[in-house]
């Protein structure tokens, strides 16, 4: 596009309005719904003209969306990469078109640092470590079947996604300090409730003596709860459950005693994203990495926090 009054490139209108193309992962979980709302509301708030697409968790759809934003010559492109790899080609095209890219939520695995200007999102390894640490700290109560071992079944996020890879790595790095804790079975539930339910049904058939479920997000944990209850067991009692996200439905299950611990993953990235985009367009320096603030919740803390939760 032509250089506009505000000094940025791209299709920004003469009045300096920034146009952002955002390629969202999908609508797979409560977290994603809250994340999309935050981005859309924040763009409105910031007076940024937002083009928004949902890729139904398919990488080729995200790539198509990014290509369409390049065609439209938007001022800035942002997206949450559904998986870590396979982005270099399309990001090279954005670079050649002179359109800056801001990553949110999930990271890409690339050698070429120039392919994006900033990455805004959680530290997923830390989230996995926090989940593992709670299990180690509470190991005395976690051998539910009393067989001397704490047998964990793991519901992994989307295969190849940064949160799935990193939450597994963080969790395993902490539990290896306690030889009585082991992951007896691990499979992807693709971050969805139905995926978590189906995998948990299979685990309940195939695994003996499950003590703990470690689910990479609340939605798969909620699906596991359905499977556990259908098997006549009491979630949170007969099988302990640890999840990550802390969305409203997860926090409600936690307060109700069906989940035992939740590590928060903050989806409200919109305000920081729009701030970064404005700075990038204005040619200001931006941090390479912006890590989001987030905490953890026990059952008591969930009951207290629920009334004021935004999502
Ligand atoms: C994490 C995000 C994950 C959430 C899931 O930042 O990428 O994707 O934990 C969502 O709920 O589907
Ligand atoms: Zn046991």
From TrEMBL:
Keywords of this protein's UniProt record, alphabetized? Answer: Sugar transport, Transport
Q: What is this protein called?
A: ABC-type sugar transport system substrate-binding protein
